[in-house]
Amino acid sequence: xxxxxxxxxxxxxxxxxxxxxxxxxxxxxxxxxxxxxxxxxxxxxxxxxxxxxxxxxxxxxxxxxxxxxxxxxxxxxxxxxxxxxxxxxxxxxxxxxxxxxxxxxxxxxxxxxxxxxxxxxxxxxxxxxxxxxxxxxxxxxx
Length: 142
Hints:
Strand order of the largest sheet: 1-4-3-2
Radius of gyration: 17 Å
Number of helices: 2
Oligomer: single chain
Strand content: 25-35%
Structural class: alpha/beta
Largest sheet: 4 strands, mixed
């Protein structure tokens, strides 16, 4: 095995720090990421463009308000691909995906797929955030 840092050695990712999403409405997205997903809003560095940061455990979601010079909000996903999970998405581990699905229904968040069992036994649910980014929540088998 090549030691890390040696020529030809892999980078060796330590973990996923954050996901950045372009959104059309910061207040609507704040309500979703705090009120639906239970993330905590955290302080954001003084970037020269509007945005918000959220955190849960060691995972962060960084939101950027759509504007000149950035990509459009949303993911542009074809909903017909979502039922099988065949779409760009990010996933959060939760204690119980069935309970998460019920919480989504109570908040009138449409579930696009699941709860379903994937081949490794995890139970997963897919839904959209307010701008159409695909979000998955899942729990590992006990």
